[in-house]
Amino acid sequence: MKNPRRDIPLSLAAGTGLVIFLYVLANVAYLVTLPLANIQHAPDDRVGTAALNAILGGGGATVMAVAVMISTFGCANGLILAGASVYYAMARDGLFFASAGTLNDKRVPARGLVLQGVWTALLVLPRTRVIDPKTSVESYGNLYSDLLDYVVFSVLIFYVLTITALFILRRKWPDAQRPYHAFGYPLVPALYIVGATVIMLVLIAYKTQTTWPGLLIVLTGVPVYFLWRKKAAAAAVLPQDGDESPETGGNSPAR
Fold it and tell me: What is the mean pLDDT of residues 117-131?
């Protein structure tokens, strides 16, 4: 990012604006293609697939599947790279395995990527067994769909915390250099916090079967964080290789 003062606002405005335009356009297409009843009762709530089936016939589902796969590859690319970078930053702060805080000769957190890949496989490969109580029909699903429901509420929590940090940092360090200033501060960030909080309350009220497990998963990270932080603080006070030992006046051994 060579010119963040200019490039960050442009990228945020252009990217968000394009997504909003495409979402509105897609919903207009649904409304002019399908009757309202078909939208309300689309199989598995897949309105886009139902619209393409109405337009293209039986090939609509195939076209939608290809489009979803393309979208998934692009989304996964960004999330994988970002996730490994988060592990790297956490490790550098002493809040994760130290090995994840190293870069390979290509300046890439390769160990973080491998760790993320292994953990991802453990989460998405298991299948869930479900028995319909009415028909006693046995079916299987992928754990990934359940995790997706759990993470929606959890992500909103961290979005709200991130925007709240904007107000805290402005108060603590009002004179800090800021190449980019949040648009519409403080009104726009405050409106986002209010809107996201309302959505979370709605999810708690109407999606309790997936909201509470997602919240519990987040809360399990709180004691883990304090344990890692305590370990990092203890390691910081120990002499490291090359440090002067107060007892001997020389270099202390590795610990």
Answer: 77
Contact between 149 and 214 under an 8 Å Cβ cutoff? The reply is yes
Backbone φ and ψ for 81, nearest 5 degrees, come out as -65, -40
Give me the phi and psi of 179, to 5 degrees please.
-60, -30
pLDDT digits (tens, 9 = 90+) for 141-193: 667 767 777 788 888 999 999 999 999 999 999 888 877 777 788 899 999 99
pTM assigned to the model: 0.64
User: How many domains does the chain contain in total?
Assistant: 1
**Inside any domain, residue 208:** yes
150 within a domain of the structure (yes/no):
yes
Please tell me the distance from the alpha carbon of residue 157 to that of residue 160, in angstroms, as a whole number: 5
Cα 53 to chain center, whole Å? 31
28 domain residue, yes or no: no
DSSP-assigned states of every residue in 217-230: HHHHHHHHHHHHHH
Identify the residue whose tokens are 């994840």: 100
Q: Is residue 50 within 8 Å of 43, Cβ to Cβ? A: yes
- Helices then strands (H, E): number in the chain? 8, 2
Does 50 map to a domain? no
Q: Which domain holds residue 216?
A: 143-236
